[in-house]
UniProtKB/TrEMBL annotation, chains A, B:
Homodimer. Keywords: Aminoacyl-tRNA synthetase, ATP-binding, Cytoplasm, Ligase, Nucleotide-binding, Protein biosynthesis. It catalyses: tRNA(Pro) + L-proline + ATP = L-prolyl-tRNA(Pro) + AMP + diphosphate. NCBIfam families: proS_fam_I. GO terms for molecular function: proline-tRNA ligase activity. Transmembrane segments: none annotated. Its EC number is 6.1.1.15. It is found in: Cytoplasm. It holds the Pfam family HGTP_anticodon. This is Proline--tRNA ligase. Residues 27-293 form the Aminoacyl-transfer RNA synthetases class-II family profile domain. Catalyzes the attachment of proline to tRNA(Pro) in a two-step reaction: proline is first activated by ATP to form Pro-AMP and then transferred to the acceptor end of tRNA(Pro). It comes from the Bacteria.
Length: 490, 490
């Protein structure tokens, strides 16, 4: 183990970068802006995927797969979509390389594509072009499809997990007979995301609408979940869009209604990405490393033997086997680290870095006393307890840790949410404290843009079921009926 | 339901194409050579993935993710690899589009990449470039990593699942301290593939070595599993490569051995792809549609009510609920199709087309008699049986179907494997019968190429544990010690 992490208070950004690489989550690749997700990081992503995938299936969705490439012309078909997505992207122009005769591999100019292909930044266009063939009548609706895929958006400044040129995500794309049904779907999927964020990631989120400025290119309404990171910055953790009939019109997708009328189909799309990994890391971790919610930890319990000589190790291993057999029965994941190449102190630091929720240390004296040392990662406290009923203790403790880190994040967010009533106050809180700032706004894109230009803060969302209260816009003094949530954001 | 399928005997190729689209497995997309995998097809692929993924994990592998793009120069680093993969591929040359002022979206020539990026056709190069940073000493070995990903190989003639420009696959990439260990890994993963093919796909496979001509570009040895389709053509269903130190040398990946010596690392790679879907379809299906092995069928049992009026339907549905509750307990997947928009005959044909292993039909008389009609897809036989112990009957029947379709494919292969002792006989069998042809060969690439040019047949493999027997090459008359397996292939 190399020396410790930079502390969050010294340099939050540096702390994050070091943590991601030192905890073996991800690293930069040789391809600009693209990351390598390392096995430990990927195993967390797999757990996220499994939970989300089951939730999608439980709400009636099926997975499918659509092409990586999208013909350039598809982007032009939906007016606002083209500006949002057809700019910074990876463009495939040729389909062959050749040897130039001097041992260099060059692009074969004779193999130029008639129409360039874009590596998908999002798949609405190719999917709605496909749905056209799937939908004739109301009997074909709804279509409830999700895709797990990689997407590419050419980013100039990248950060592991948070903003990378290629990232992994899921994108749901549904088709409906009515506007109401599509809106209900968008709302349902937002709830799925919020449930996942709060009950699996242990990360409280605000559910709300994006303003017109921040809406998905092509959507009539973008719903989002917004989380607060430990540096007081917001992170958009998932979005669910009501697309109206925009893509159906762009790709001419109509259905015959029960009454025999031809109507355009209503659409939603919704997605979360490997960005959630960044959120998970930043929501809970500390200066010693990752803090993982037990429900998403690839290893929930690590057991480290502390021994003198092979004989004692064998005795310990025998007792550990009894514990691990019981853990297996309960479906609790574990690792018994009996490597003889590293000392216990090294192992302790390693599993703290990697965020393993519970650490058991089993020493020679524990053999005699029928005890074991149990340490929890979230509070970094430890105690020596009897091995009687150990696995029940572990099971309960895992639940307690899950709740505790949620509560900690929830309390932090409460403390870091401030109501302000003037633009001066707004700027002061933004600069000195950060966090979510609840303020009155006149509802215009112009005011929103002005605030963004002057302070870099954006409206994260107009919360759902927002308290209605009379007020005046902090910038223009115009009347306002509700507070919206501002923050600096990732 | 549109009219039936073309029969296999009339036009095998047409039968396949119709089956893939009519059974809702996949379809061609608007992007040349790329397919859309539809929800039903994808649900079979997901089942395959789940089984394989568990097998990889059970053998100590972890998943990770590497970039989609590979810098052009990486391909030049391994001499044979560049010829094999850096020719027909998707080349990204630009990273921005712009509006030309006349409303057209064009490539922004100012956003030209300094070095072109290739969409990965396979990931050895980018992965070994990454492993360089992961490996210093023997303690870092072995690395046992797998990746589930999309890859692109620019294909001129494509067929759904069998040969598409973009396809989905997994690629294992392992790093070892010794040649022996790497070879054992390659061999182990071949066994994993063979086990999966035979015991899940119910598809018998030959395990063997590829000849030098057919070897993976960059490998010292390519192991493969070869299956026989119902038209007598072979299909390579999976490969596992021993790469020696080729990629370690190309990317300068060395490790300090226990003795402190710097040595190049030994490598394997292994993969199976959505091509397995094509194999699964062609191995078992018939003129009525798909025949799925129960272990990979997304729906194992379908239940169709046959009723007059809502009251009878309600009574049937009540009884069906008892059955489905029991099926659930046993982990048997099912669908109760009580749509009132389609007649039973239509539904029967639909589930035959989709290859559901068992169909139950529940009619009014079954209410009185405590009976049910049970039909099996593989033999297309049906009988009316008592509902007492029904789910046990179903459980046993699913196993029986799994075994039966394996046996059928096994017997077909036995019948379609022919030993020949002259080139004339070889050509006659190839033309009139097809299948696997076991013949003596002098071991030279020249003779192999000559046979391929003259007959299109290739050596599918030199079987593992091949019977050693003296013979003479069917073409050159030179001495040979074993027969190898020839066939026309997909």
């Amino acid at each position: 183990m190399s020396k410790g992490l930079t502390s969050r208070s010294d340099d939050y950004s540096q702390w994050y970068n070091e943590l991601v690489t030192k905890a073996d989550l991800a690293e930069h690749s040789s391809v600009r802006g693209c990351m390598v997700i390392k096995p430990y990081g990927y195993s967390i992503w797999e757990k996220m995927q499994a939970v989300l995938d089951q939730k999608f299936k439980d709400t009636g969705h099926s997975n499918a797969y659509f092409p990586l490439f999208i013909p350039k012309s598809f982007f032009s078909k939906e007016a606002s979509h083209v500006d949002g997505f057809a700019t910074e992207c990876a463009v495939v122009t040729h389909y062959r390389l050749k040897n130039d005769g001097n041992g260099n591999i060059i692009v074969d100019e004779e193999a130029k594509l008639e129409e360039e292909l874009i590596v998908r930044p999002t798949s609405e266009t190719i999917i709605w072009n496909t749905y056209k063939g799937w939908i004739q009548s109301y009997r074909d609706l709804p279509i409830l499809v999700n895709q797990w895929a990689n997407v590419v958006r050419w980013e100039m400044r990248t950060r592991l997990f948070l903003r990378t040129t290629e990232f992994l995500w899921q994108e749901g794309h549904t088709a409906h007979a009515t506007s109401e049904e599509a809106q209900a779907e968008a709302s349902q999927m937002l709830d799925v995301y919020a449930d996942f964020a709060e009950n699996w990631m242990a990360m409280p989120v605000l559910k709300g609408h994006k303003t017109a400025n921040e809406r998905f290119a092509g959507a009539l309404d973008t719903l989002c979940i917004e989380a607060l990171m430990q540096d007081g910055k917001a992170l958009q953790a998932g979005t669910s869009h009501f697309l109206g009939q925009n893509f159906a019109k762009a790709f001419d997708v109509k259905f015959a209604s029960k009454e025999g009328k031809l109507e355009h189909v209503w659409a939603t799309s919704w997605g979360v990405s490997t960005r959630l990994m960044g959120a998970l890391i930043m929501a809970h971790s500390d200066d010693q490393g990752l803090v993982l919610p037990p429900k998403l930890a690839p290893i929930q319990v690590v057991i480290v033997p502390i021994y003198k000589g092979d004989e004692e190790l064998n005795e310990i291993s025998e007792q550990v086997l009894i514990i691990t057999n019981e853990l297996k029965k309960k479906g609790i994941s574990f690792k018994y680290d009996n490597r003889d190449t590293q000392r216990p102190g090294f192992k302790f630091a390693e599993y703290e870095l990697k965020g393993v929720p519970i650490r058991l240390a089993f020493g020679g004296r524990d053999l005699e006393n029928n005890t074991i040392e149990i340490a929890r990662r979230d509070t970094r406290t430890k105690e020596t307890i009897s091995r009687e009923g150990l696995v029940d203790v572990i099971e309960k403790l895992l639940e307690e840790i899950q709740e505790n880190i949620y509560k900690k994040a929830f309390d932090y967010r409460a403390e870091m949410t401030t109501e302000v009533n003037s633009y001066n106050e707004f700027k002061k809180v933004l600069e000195e404290k950060g966090g979510f700032i609840a303020a009155h706004w006149d509802g215009t894109p112009e005011t929103e843009s002005k605030i963004k230009e002057e302070t870099k803060a954006t409206i994260r969302c107009i919360p759902l079921k927002n308290k209605q209260e009379e007020g005046i816009c902090i910038v223009t003094g115009k009347p306002s009926k509700e507070r919206v949530i501002f923050a600096l954001a990732y």
